[in-house]
Amino acid sequence: MAETTTLERIQGAIPIEANNLLAAGAVLAILIIMVMPIPAPAMDILLAFNFTFSLLVMLLSLYIVKPLDFPIFPSLLLLTTLFRLSLNIASTRLILLHGHTGIDAAGKIIMGFGQFVVGGNYVVGGIIFAILVIINFVVITKGAGRIAEVAARFTLDAMPGKQMAIDADLNAGLIDENEARRRRQEIARESEFYGAMDGASKFVRGEAIAGLIIMSINILGGFIIGVFQQGMAIGTAAQSYTLLTIGDGLVSQIPALIVSTASGILVSRAASEAGMGREFVKQFALNPEAMIVAAGVVAVFGMIPGLPFFPFFLLAFLFGTLAWVSGRE
Predict the structure, then answer these.
(1) N or C: more exposed end of the chain, with fewer CB within 10 A?
(2) Using the 8-state DSSP alphabet, how is residue 141 labeled?
(3) What average pLDDT score do residues 262-284 get?
(4) pLDDT at 7
(5) Residue 11 falls within a domain, yes or no?
(6) 10 Å Cβ neighbour count for 82?
(7) How many folded domains does the chain comprise?
(8) Residues 173 and 293 reside in one and the same domain
(9) Which of 39-48, 157-166, 313-322 is predicted least confidently?
(10) DSSP class of 67
């Protein structure tokens, strides 16, 4: 109750008109990024903001207790997807127009991912990019979408029973009219939330496919522009535009993977009484026997010839210590 009061106090400090203008301004900014040329320094700022905001969304999904504590998440998922696609368009424009000037044509962040993260090897970068797309598309977004779909279906099927239970409590005098109204609204919000999450997850899956297509277009288009319009050597054009494209793809896919993970965490929360971190510690602390068995198995692995002893021994010692501390408490 205190958390709700604090939240309402924070929301009340911001005028409603300012909130509406902020949302409209965000959508307008996305459209501007799509159609207007963005200089490389501004591109670095936007990419850094995209990464930071995606990380913030995932951390929020870890700290909330139940999905309805983050009701704006489906709309936020759509807006972040559109924002990443607008950044893809802006970075593609920079790569194709200025890629012949050097690997820093699209900004320092894309150059850093193209050189440092993948070691300047575009084959390694392409493989890492493909792995990230597969993880995002096949594993996380598909699983999160399926969870949201099943949750929406079961929530909808359970609505009549929940409504009858509320009416029974109201008729028995266990709750008043205001509490009954609040519970009915919560049931409706829960159904709407999972239905919206089911639809919003489709946008993220579509973005993963779009990322592959955009990468192919960037490499092919950049090669044609570099060789036939800018007079670059074939090998130089292929390496330069491929590294730029791989860097751009990684900068886009990592925040997408973070947000997709946040959506999976959010829709998979069930019957929680605290944040995910606290629940995680609580569950392991209540079952020290599992950590003892894990420590024993890891110690056996460390004694197998050919396997390194120190990492397994260190983990066995760590799990054994945690189990001993949990057992004492």
Answers:
(1) N
(2) I
(3) 71
(4) 46
(5) no
(6) 18
(7) 2
(8) no
(9) 157-166
(10) G
Q: Is residue 198 part of a domain?
A: yes
Q: Which residue from 139, 266, 131 is spatially nearest to 198, judged by alpha carbons? A: 266
DSSP assignment of 42-64: HHHHHHHHHHHHHHHHHHHHHH-
> How many CB atoms sit inside 10 A of residue 25's CB?
10
Instruction: Report if residue 10 sits inside a domain.
Output: no
Do 296 and 153 share a structural domain? no
* Most confident of the ranges 5-9, 161-165, 274-278: 161-165
pLDDT of residue 233: 83
Closest among 134, 156, 138 to 146, alpha carbons compared: 138
Do the domain assignments include residue 73?
Answer: yes
Residues 92, 193, single domain; the answer is yes
Give residue 86's domain range.
25-272
Crossing angle, helix 288-302 and helix 309-328, to 10 degrees? 160
Q: Are 322 and 286 in contact (CB under 8 A)?
A: no
Q: In the predicted model, is pLDDT for residue 278 greater than 80?
A: no
One-character DSSP codes across 212-268: HHHHHHHHHHHHHIIIIIS---HHHHHHHHHHHHHHHHHHHHHHHHHHHHHHHHHHT
- The more confidently predicted of residues 12 and 251 is 251
